[in-house]
Amino acid sequence: MKNFITLPNQQNTALLAVRNLSIELPSAADRDRAVDDLSFDVREGEIVCLVGESGSGKSMTAHSILGLLPRGVRTLAESSVCLAGEQLVGLDDARMRALRGHDVAMIFQDPMSALNPLQTIGRQLAEAIRLHDGGRSPARDLDVRCVAMIGSVGLPAAEQIMRSYPFQLSGGQRQRVMIAMALINGPRLLIADEPTTALDVTTQRQILDPVRGMQRERRMGVLFITHDFGVVADIADRVIVMREGRLVEQGTREQILTRPAEPYTRQLIDAVPGRRPRAGAGVQGASRRVTPPMLEVAGLHKTFVSRSGWFNPARVVVAADNINFVVRAGETVSIVGESGSGKTTLGRMIMRLTEPDAGTIKLEGRDLLRASGAELRAYRRQVQIIFQDPFASLNPRQPIGDAIMRGPIAFGMPRADARALTASLLERVGLGAAAIPRYPHEFSGGQRQRIAIARALALQPRVLISDEAVSALDVSVQAQVLALLEELKNEFELTMLFITHDLRVAAEISDRVIVLQRGQVVEEGSSAQIFGAPQHAYTRQLLDAMPGKDIFVHPGDAVRSACGHSSSPVV
Amino acid sequence: MALATQIVKMICIVLLIAVFNFLLIRAAPGDPALVIAGQSGAVDAQFVDRIRTEYGLDKPLVVQLGTYLGKIAHLDLGYSYRQQRSVLSLILERLPATLMLALSAFVLSLSGGVLLGCLAGVRAGRWSDTVITVISLVVYATPVFWLGLMMVLLFAVHLPWLPAFGYRDVSRELTGWAAALDVARHLVLPAVTLGMLYLAVYTRLMRASIIEVSHQDYVKTARAKGAGPRRVLWRHMVRNALLPVVTMAGLQAGTLIGGSVVIETVFAWPGLGRLTYEAVLARDYQVLQGVFFVLSVVVVLFNWLTDLLYRVVDPRIRAA
Amino acid sequence: MQALIRSYLRHPSGIIGLVILLVIIALAALAPLICPGSPWDSVGQPFMPPDSPGLLLGSDSLGRDIASGIVHGASVSLLIGCVSTLAAVLIGLAIGATAGYLGGRVGDWLMRFTELFQVIPAFLLAILVVAILTPSIRTLTVAIALVSWPQLARITRAEFMALREREFVQAARCQGESGMAIVLRQIMPNALSPIIVTASLSVANAVLMESALSFMGLGDPNLMSWGFMIGEARTMIRVAWWMSAFPGLAILLTVMAINLVGEGLNDVLNPRISRR
After folding, report:
1. How many angstroms separate the CA atoms of C237 and C6, rounded?
2. Rounded alpha-carbon distances, angstroms, from residue A153 to A16, A172, A184
3. H/E element holding A138?
């Protein structure tokens, strides 16, 4: 644990000085303190990234600065939080309210729920001003300021946005409105609690740019909370790493990214996907034998029509528009797209959980879509899926051993054999046979995904589809699960179809990549091709928007760093 | 366009209610003609036959249904032999009293419930919350007719502040404002009794809703902007918390009407409920049928009004 | 199962409710022992106040023992309450599960049918049904079941619809489980909790409705019930307050106890056990 080194005059120039911050949790929680003895600074004009996995206490830290902790959670009296020399811990309510939104502002993670759904954007923006000017500004002035602010966060049609309700805007637009609301009074410090986590990659870039721009303009200090080291690489001046409420390490961006002192930090950086891209197809392409096609998708079409009421026009959403691709045996193919690209629907159609409107899907030459009854059940064995949400994919009232055994038993395997198979699979995924009688809520997110993998493998499938299976996991857990999938794929000779929105994950594990946009296949090729020489404008946009592309090693460079160890970031 | 859909939907529902009504009465055991004739006291065969032809009871069921629906369309709800008047006139005479009772109970319970629920929700866990919650629990479990009797016992017998029964003081001839005030005094006990039950319901619901809303992110955002607790409550929390309560209020229309039947019986309030009670005792099916139909239509209209109210409050519904 | 019981016992309000309910059930079951003879028998002078010799709670206008009426009336209310709710649950479950799981056209039409029943004022319908079919314990049960099932159908449908889309159900489909097995093994155990809670609250409503119908004179004429006793007392309110007070208190305590138990069950069976 690195101690905080006080440089001369540090206390005077620090905008935010946090010393010995300790936050106590209510007795029912799994540990005493959310944050234990944390100290750090944020100076004027600098962006400090507070990084950690879930449970690290980073969000609690942010909330405690503004006194917004939930009921039952307290900042202990020995803590000190100074904003430009003023002590915030124990500050009286009236003074705290004067500071909030005016000297210190905060934006939250989920833009959907962070705006009052029943008030127009204009009203909520104006409220931010009115709370601090004593109600003196006339309405006309307020309007002008609000419109100007909306423009400066990069949103066009400001007048219309003022009159809109939150549900009429997209996620990215809402988050920018949040930023506008936070910055409208020109605060000296901005606290951002994972503002980009819930957004698409291309939208993330649209958020980070205005924040950086305004920060430079106004010499605003920014405390940016994130779990993604890619984002850190993009915007941080200084980095603070937390783990389970304690400070692990802090330093400048260069120090942390290139010469991390603590093993935990190193572990987190190593776990960022895409650092060791598949050198496979590019280097050894010629020597790999071409395997027969396992899954062939041709001319797939699917539109969703939603109609509200008899007389209203129907809303048409195109989920799949003439999708064609082939997956060969033993390959790992990633389907990459943002929200609304249709990638999840594609996975569901291949599983026949949703029926396509037109097209064919062939498994080893046999037409899937025409199968029914016994043939369909036989097919179901061959293709298995792992879902995104580890909490929702297991029946909370069924012991996990049962959940895994059900499949083989339904296909005729005797119970004893199924049990033995379950035990061996659970060992293989690292959980052990003792887990059989236990219930899902006794396991963590990563462990539940392993159970889901074991359940899928119990039916001995040929194809494994992973629908954003690692997106909801912490970065280090993500790395473990991806490694597990890689091992299992080789061991069980699987063909994998990996659906994801994270290009870095795709780079890490796939042989080939298919890029989807609004239901259409926009580009397709080997990993080296897609990442080295993208053809389509959208692919280029995705690559550009990838957080931390500086530390992301280009597959073309894979030849240069043949050993695959961490290389220096391209500054 | 949306309005047209709604009206069509309402007409369909009313039609279905009429059909249901018709079938229900036919489910009565025995010869309907005898039943109807029996009420007027004369049971000779000729009279019964006349009844049969007049009501078309000798024709096939479908034809009877058609005739019935046709009559409804002309607002002909039948004739009560017991009371020697058309059912429609009976109903129209009593409807205003019931509406007065139901509406006052509704307004009282909704406004009271919202206020108390807010108070309890904001102070969740503290003693004022516990007191309000316990009282709501007790009131919620109380049979409304018994509550009425106890109220009469307390406020009319032991403390003679308010009149126990009836619509107005029959011993005095009052006009104008004095008459209105008299009716209002008589309205207090029945309306409060009927309202108390729903007060408990809305209090509990509003409390739960406020607690739920307090966990939402936009409340945090408002606080982060520097808003004080009162502003956060009234500008941000209450309107959002009202939504499920308004929905519930709409759904409660039917039970409110049902409750007024019992209340009117207890307080001898001359409304449709009282009429129903008398009709039940006299087995006057014509009247029962008519009241049932009219009150169902009232509920349908009321649901429509709450729907409109909901649209006003929630812009997301307006756009959909 | 043991975990559920232990969890329930941590709620003071749930325990109070359960204790009161058990006492009332005991009274009902042991009625012939506690107050032998029929509650319809005149055992003393009319209008005797409470705490008179041999008449703990007083007597009514015909000299009948109030206490006996209350003890014997308990079984009527509880019986009608439980049986009618059971019937309503069966109907509501069948309709709601079908509508929720199948969805589409069938689901829509089933829901419209349910909505129609909810628009009709419940108490009026009950009055009408009982009046037409002549009052008896059977017709009361039928009438109350008829007005209670829509609520249960709605909640069943909502649960089934939500669960059908949950990933573990989809996973079961992928594993090759048949539709029926999915409904019984995956969906039902998870849907049961809110249904049980709603059912317990329905029992409370049923008791209230039965007493209201009896009050109006539509109860079974052969059975002494609490509502009937209050109905008798209506015109005597100034003379004999105990005739209406005690039966009313009995109803209040019973309904409150059922509500408390229902809320206790709600806290215990909360499906959030599956989430951290």
Report:
1. 46
2. 25, 11, 11
3. none
- Compute the distance between CA of residue C11 and CA of residue A245 in angstroms, rounded to an integer: 33
Q: Among residues 255-284 of chain B, which lie with CB inside 8 Å of chain A? A: none
Closest chain C C-alpha to A278 CA, distance in angstroms = 30
Chain A nearest-CA distance from C120, in A, is 23
d(CA A448, CA A443): 6
Tens digit of pLDDT at every position of chain A (571 positions):
344 444 444 444 688 999 999 998 887 777 888 898 999 999 988 999 999 988 888 988 999 999 898 888 888 888 899 998 889 988 898 999 999 989 999 999 888 889 998 899 999 999 999 888 877 778 888 889 899 989 888 888 888 889 989 988 888 889 999 999 998 988 999 999 998 887 888 888 878 887 888 888 888 899 999 988 888 888 899 999 999 889 999 999 999 888 889 999 998 888 888 776 664 443 334 445 678 888 888 888 998 887 655 455 667 888 888 899 889 888 899 999 888 788 888 988 888 888 888 888 888 888 887 777 778 888 888 889 998 888 888 888 888 898 898 888 888 889 899 999 999 999 988 888 888 888 888 888 888 999 999 999 998 898 999 998 888 888 888 888 888 988 998 888 899 999 998 888 888 888 899 999 988 899 998 888 888 888 899 988 888 888 877 766 554 444 333 333 333 333 3
Q: How many Cβ atoms are within 10 Å of A215's Cβ, its own excluded? A: 20
Alpha helices, H only, chain C: 2-8, 12-29, 31-34, 66-102, 104-119, 122-132, 137-164, 167-174, 179-181, 188-215, 226-233, 242-268
Q: What is the pTM (predicted TM-score) of this model?
A: 0.83
- Chain A residues in contact with B224 by the CB 8 A cut-off are 66, 68, 100-101, 105-106, 182
Tell me if C173 and A353 make a contact (CB, 8 A cut-off).
Answer: yes
Q: How far is A477 from chain B, CA to nearest CA, in Å?
A: 28
Q: Which residue of A has its CA nearest to C191?
A: A397
- Give the closest residue to B148 by CA, choosing from B192, B202, B201, B93: B192
List of chain B residues whose C-beta atoms are within 8 Å of the C-beta of residue A194: none
Measure the CA–CA gap between A55 and A555, rounded to whole angstroms: 33
Rounded to 5°, angle at Cα A385 from A384 and A391: 135
Contacts of B276 in chain C (CB under 8 A): 124, 127
C175 and A353 within 8 Å at the Cβ level: the answer is: no
> Could you tell me if residue C224 is left (phi over 0), alpha (psi between -120 and 50 degrees) or otherwise beta?
beta
B chain contacts of residue C125, beta-carbon cutoff 8 Å:
292
Helix (H) or strand (E) holding B177: helix B176-214
A-contacting residues in C 180-209 (Cβ below 8 Å)? 181, 185-186, 189-190
The answer, for A169 touching chain B at a CB cutoff of 8 Å, is no
CB spacing of B153 vs C237 below 8 angstroms: yes
Do residues A71 and A156 touch, judged by C-beta distance below 8 A?
Answer: no
What is the distance between the alpha carbons of residues C137 and C140, in angstroms, rounded to a whole number? 5
Closest CA to A146 of A130, A167, A166, A132: A130
Three-state secondary structure along C143-173? HHHHHHHHHHHHHHHHHHHHHHCCHHHHHHH
Alpha carbons C39 and C51: distance in angstroms, whole number: 18
